[in-house]
Amino acid sequence: MAVPPSITAAPQEVLGCGTDDLLTCHVILLREPRLGVAAIGHFDEFARTKDFKGLVASFLERVRQRKRAEEWDYWEGGEGDWEWEEEGEEREEETEEELDPAEVYELHLVGGYADDAGKARKISQRFFKHLHDIPIRLELKTCCLGRPNTR
């Protein structure tokens, strides 16, 4: 299995990441704390379920890639007990490895100021429904919605 160079390259520290015009919009950040994999999305009233699912799918794929890269580094170092494939042996088809169902990812939510029309609150409710429906465990680390996000 070839690992793309961007996956095995030394990680770089991100000093900052942001967005602007966050009124009724919401920023959702997912993070895998051990590997440092993160995904950030800026969603507005026009965002659809497929957009949100795309963010989650992209995030989970990056987590899988980093885990594979860790395994690759392990084998490259000569560690472990593995066997060479013998000539003529059929290779097992690679399957998408399942993520550990006990794994907990960080969730950070910001946005949705307290507007007079209540539009932001409705969008917040929509995203909480989306977050509830995804098949991973989340720990809410930051939540700044509504009145706390209004100046």
Architecture overview:
The protein has 151 residues and is α+β, with helices and mostly antiparallel strands. It is built from three helices and four strands, in the order αββαβαβ. Strands 2-1-3-4 form a four-stranded mixed β-sheet, with helices on one face. Helix 3 (119-133) links the parallel strand 3 and strand 4. The radius of gyration is 20 Å and the shape is elongated. The model is unreliable at 1-5 and 91-95 (pLDDT under 50).
Compile the SSE list and pairings.
Blueprint: H1 5-8, E1 26-32, E2 37-43, H2 49-76, E3 104-113, H3 119-133, E4 137-146
Parallel strand pairs: 3-4
Antiparallel strand pairs: 1-2, 1-3
Task: Quickly list its features.
alpha+beta; 31% helix; 151 residues; disordered N terminus
Integer average pLDDT:
79
The SSE string, one letter per element, is HEEHEHE
- Approximate shape: elongated
Number of strands: 4
**How would you characterize the largest beta sheet?**
4 strands, mixed
Radius of gyration from CA coordinates: 20 Å
Quick rundown:
With 151 residues, this protein is an alpha+beta fold. It has helices spanning 5-8, 49-76, 119-133, and strands at 26-32, 37-43, 104-113, 137-146.
